[in-house]
Structure formats: structure tokens, C-alpha cells
Amino acid sequence: MLRTGTRHAPRRRGDSGLWLAAGAVALSLAALIALLFVLLQQSARPFLPAAVAELRWQGAAGPQQALAAIVREDADELIARASEWQRRGGAYLRIARADLLERTFPPDALALRLADGRELYLRGDAHALAALPSAAGLALPGMPAELPLRRGELVEILAPNQLGPGGRLRVATQRAWAFVSGSPGGDSGSAGLLPALVGTVVLVLLMSVLVMPLGVLVALWLHEYAGRGALAQLLRAAVANLAGVPSVIYGLFGLVLFVHGLGAGLDALFHADALPSPTWGTGGLLWSALTLALLTLPVVVIAVEEGLARVPAGLRQGALALGATRAEMLWRVVLPVARPALLTALILAVARAAGEVAPLMLVGAVKYAPALPLDGEFPYLHLSKQFMHLGHSVYDLALTGADAQRDLGEAHAAALLLLIVVVALNAAAIVVRNRLRERSRELSA
Amino acid sequence: MSRLRLAGADGLQPMPGGLLDGLELALQARALSLHYAERRVLDQISLSVPRRRITALIGPSGCGKSSLLRCFNRLNDEIADCRMDGEVQVLGVDAYAADVSVPDLRRRVGMVFQKPNPFPQSVGENVAFGLRLAGLRSRLELDDRVETALRAAGLWDEVRDRLDDSALRLSAGQQQRLVIARALAVEPEVLLMDEPASMLDPISTLRLEELMVALRERYSVLLVTHNMQQAARVADYTAYMQDGRVLEFDTTDRIFTNPRLRGTEDYITGKL
Ligand SMILES: Nc1ncnc2c1ncn2[C@@H]1O[C@H](COP(=O)(O)OP(=O)(O)OP(=O)(O)O)[C@@H](O)[C@H]1O
Ligand SMILES: [Mg+2]
């Protein structure tokens, strides 16, 4: 046995590496939590019932008075929303602190919501109002006589100043649920995310169904058959570079190839009687799913190829030595062993596709689609129809909503929902993959 | 055409010196050279493996034994830049002729690898793998053939209750016998065994050797081994390889008692 004089001190390098890594993890976690917090907070805003105040302030033409919902208050000004008698949004009061004469919260203040999303602030008895038959006209102090309203037009009657924290939370939950599960009423201004939610999920599932077989086949060809020929090298370079192409370019490509090319061709062949109104020759679910499939194809190909490369050579040779053709070997041994890698590919594809909006706006996602892409009517899945998408809803609510103050909150809610959908789809795929891993670990135990 | 001459009616005994006189040949290599990319690992090899005998292939590590084995079932075809020259006959037929079906060839020339490579499937499915490939569908017949193969490999008693368990849970020695059973199940005529006992304990090794001797009745075995006693115990003939060449080929007795070459003797006696 050799014994040298000095014993080496334990290395410190590993420690600093550990700290760096832990720091990075903490930082990303903090960023994630901050993001979630902002989204939650922002998206809660439109749903939490605002207190309704009786305000008196010094206007340019003397003292003024109004009943309004407090939107925001800070050290030097107060923003409140007044009753939207005429149209949705825009009825904002901006009062400097110095001008504010009086602010009280009368317990009988009511916040009434109409089917089209408008809100009215009045004083009265909520229970009595709720008990009215739906045809009854409303007669409350402060209502303009030229805009008569009936009880039936009210979808929500609240006395917000009487609500405790629990009550506010309950109302917020109800409103949020109604927003998520409701359908938008087209131009009437009422909002709802259900169609966009369904559209997003259906789109991603359809994309997965399209991209996986194609991606696996391309990867198999590249990894198992192509060798190092010029064509294969070219394709490999193309795949590697395609992964970095901005998504909107795929959108344009999809528009030209699928909508104007394939779609118009299909119309000319099979739906000539319906022309000039297009059936397939316009943006739609199928074209969007195909565009996303193209977009995610490189990711899938690369991930699957990596998985194939990790299958032990001994297994391949074992199968071949038993008289398997190459296809049999791939199908019976290599692909089953590589299944976790296929799911990794799927997870990457879903993660990339679920958040894409830009290309979809070119090939089929719209602000408002009258029907769900998936319903009980034959053929159940409406491939040629335009559809709504959560990402598009975020964009739409944030930029073009009738009421930017409120809708930014709704945009955040849509964003939060989109995030939840993406995370849920990923989580589902990860659960399946881990199951498979466990099984193959059991098998390789 | 040298191939035609070799395959001629009585042409299956071209060994000089009449060593294999009167024996049919299972495998035969003539002027066989093999390159991986530009590197030559087999150099002008000529070797005949008689039918229904055990032939041992010995030689230092890296001399090309596994590579030579893979020439006989054309597994080198799968290695990207591997090039082979020369002739290989399997049961009297040119294995590299254009009209040879490679999967059929591999069904007739089974192989047991240096490292046990069971598929991540159940024990039963592993053994049935080749049978299913061959188109066997009947459950009853599959079960029957699986049992026969497992019995032949001396594994049946240990796994009869574990046929549905993962093959990867078997011990290394059991896995080795499992892949032997898997190779036997398709009833090949020739068996290439690449150090099948390298992972086995002495008892399993002994059982494997008994198995090989029993197999001799029906199979032609080409056995690579680093274990001189093993070669001496089971093999009828022994070939000594070095640096990609077969330097000496003779009956096992003579190789071990009275080798012609100095190099062979040094290797056998551990002086190399
Ligand atoms: N797929 C391959 N690609 C390139 N070189 C290879 C490949 N397989 C084997 N070789 C090389 O060919 C030579 C012979 O290898 P081979 O595996 O045939 O030796 P061996 O006699 O079986 O050795 P061992 O007794 O250690 O198994 C070695 O130098 C090895 O590095
Ligand atoms: Mg070897």
C-alpha cells in the first residue's frame, strides 16, 4: 500500500457549484411565483365586487356628486367607474384627492349587472329588486327615464358594501366561473372563455395527433435508415434550423400552403356549389393544427432521435439476430424501449404549441366564433370551422376590449387560464411518461 | 468462380490435412477480411466449422473473435462503415449471395451475445420473440415451444412460475440462459456463442457446459471463450486467433497438448 504524505482537503468547488445551482433554482422559482401572483391578483380584480361609494367632489363647474364603484385609489387621485347607462366601458371618473369633498359607502348601494356586461350603480333594496318578476320595469331613484330597464335584463344584483370578505370571495368565484364557463355573446359585449378554452384544448390535441406519427416517422428515417447521405444531412440541418424559425413565419406558410393552396383546391373539387363562400379555403381548426404540427415537428424529431440513440445496441442486435427485419426490430423493440422519449417529445411539442398565438391568427383563430369546434352534432369535430383560442383571447381582451380597465383584468384571467391549460396538458403527459418510466424501470430493475 | 467450386457436391471439406475429412461443414470462411472504416480487424481468415460439433474460438481480447462471429449471421451488415471481403458459407450456401434472405439466414444461425441482452419484456415474451417473428400465432404452440426452449436451456424449473415477470429481474446467469433459450426457440441449425459464460458463476458455467454438450446432438456450435478449461472440456475443435488471423486450427486435444505454434502455446499457458 502506498501512502503519500499529504491528504487532500475536500474540494470546495462542488460547494460553490451547489450554491450557484440553488440560487438559480430559487431565482426561477421566485420568478414563477411572482408571475402567478401577478396573474392571480390582476385576474381577480374584475371579479371581486368593488365597493360602491357616494362621491362628492369639486368639479370645474362647481360641486358634483355621483354613485360609483371604486376602481383604484392612491395618494393623489381616485378612479371610479360610474354607471354605464349607454354602452359598455368608458364611464370613468378621475378625481384628484384635493378635489374630493366627501366619500361615503352607503349600505344600500347596489351594483347591477346587465346581460351585456354593463354595470349600473344605484341605491335600493337588493332583496326587493331580486324578488320582482322578470317583466317588471325597474324604478329606482337616479335612473334616467329615457332608458327604461326590466328586471329580466339584470343578471346580477349585489349590495357590495354589505359583503364581508367571504361574501366578496364567493361573488368573485361565481363571476370567475361564469366567465370561464360562459360563451361570449358576439357583439353584445358579454364575455366568456369556454369556447376559447375548448378551442385551445382541441387544437393542441389535434396537433399532437398529427405531429407525433409524422415526427416519429421522420426521426426513425433519419436515425435508422438515412445514414450519412447528403439528403439526410440536408434534412438534419433543416430540422435543426427549423426549430428556430419564428412562429409567425409558420403562420404565413400555413396560410399560403394550407388555406390558399390545399383549402382552395379542396373547395374547387368538393364544395364548388358553395363557392364563392369558402369551406376549406379559409382559416380553420385543421389548418391551424397542421400549422402547429409543422411548427413543433423539429422539436419532436430531435427529441425522438435522441431517444432512439439511447436504445442499447445490444437490444437491436438481439432482435436482428433472431431474424427480425429492421422494421420489426424498430417496431417491437426499439420503439417500446424509446416510449418515454416519445412522450418527452410530445411534452415539448405541447409546451411549444399551446402558447402560440401569432401563427394561429393567420390560419384560423378568431375573436369570435359562433360555434364550438367540438359538439354533439355530426361530425362532432368541425375541422373546417374557425375557432377561438385562449392566446387570442388574451390579445383580444387586452387590446380591443370595450373596457380596457376591466378587460385587462379579464385578459389576465384568460392568460391565467391559458397557463393552467398548458400546465395541465404538460402535467398529464408527464404523469403518463413517469408511469411508463416506472414500468420500464421495473422491467430493467 | 471459386464460390461454385466451394459449394460443389463434395466441396464441403476443403481443410488441408484432412482434419475435417468426412464431416459436413456448418460454417466456412474463405479469405475473409473485415474493415471498420479504414481499420482492418480480420485479415484473410479461412476457417471451417463442422456440423454437430463444438468448435472453440480462442485468442487475446480484441483479436476479432466477435467480429468474425458477426460475419456468419451478417450482423456486421448493420454496422455503418463496416466492409467485408471474401466468402462466407453457411450450411453450404453463400451467405452473402444476392438472393439470400438475411432474416432467414439469421433464423438458421442463432447468436448468443457477450453481454446478456434480454428485451425489456416478460420472460415468456422474450423466448417467444423469434417465434412470433416467424409467424407463429397459436397460443398453445407458442407456450409449448417456449417451455421446450427453456427446458433445453436449463432454465425452466427456475422460471416456470415467473413467465410473466420482467426478464430483467432475472439474475445475470439466468438472463444468459434466457437469451440462450430465446436463440434455441427458433430452432437454428448453427449457434454462435460469444463468451456465454462470462457472467456466470462456476455452477451456472458447469450447467451451461453440460447444456452445450447436450446441444451438440442437434446444433453446430461456434463458441468464443476466454476460459481455456472450458474450451478443453467442451470443444471438439479449437481455433486460435491473433491480430485478426486464425493462426492455428486443430482438434482441441492437439491444440491443448501439442500446439504447432509457439504463440498458441504461450496463450494457452497464460504466457501471453
Ligand atoms: N462496431 C465497431 N466499430 C469499430 N471498431 C470495432 C467495432 N467492433 C469492434 N471493433 C474493433 O475491432 C477489433 C476486434 O473487436 P472484437 O470485438 O471482434 O474483438 P474480440 O476478439 O471479440 O475481443 P473480446 O475478446 O474483448 O471480446 C477491436 O479492436 C475493436 O476495437
Ligand atoms: Mg468479443
From TrEMBL, chain A:
Pfam families: BPD_transp_1. Keywords: Cell membrane, Membrane, Transmembrane, Transmembrane helix, Transport. It is found in: Cell inner membrane; Cell membrane. It comes from the Bacteria. Belongs to the binding-protein-dependent transport system permease family. CysTW subfamily. The chain crosses the membrane at residues 20-40, 193-222, 234-259, 285-308, 329-351, 413-432. CDD domains: TM_PBP2. It comes from Tahibacter harae. InterPro entries: MetI-like, MetI-like_sf, Phosphate_PstA. This is Phosphate transport system permease protein PstA. Residues 197-429 form the ABC transmembrane type-1 domain.
From TrEMBL, chain B:
The keyword Transport applies. One of its GO terms (molecular function) is ATP binding. Pfam families: ABC_tran (PF00005). Transmembrane segments: none annotated. The keyword S-adenosyl-L-methionine does not apply. InterPro entries: AAA+_ATPase, ABC_transporter-like_ATP-bd, ABC_transporter-like_CS, P-loop_NTPase, PstB-like. Keywords: ATP-binding, Nucleotide-binding, Phosphate transport, Transport. Residues 27-268 form the ABC transporter domain. SUPFAM superfamilies: P-loop containing nucleoside triphosphate hydrolases. It comes from the Bacteria. PANTHER family: ABC TRANSPORTER I FAMILY MEMBER 17. This is Phosphate ABC transporter ATP-binding protein PstB.
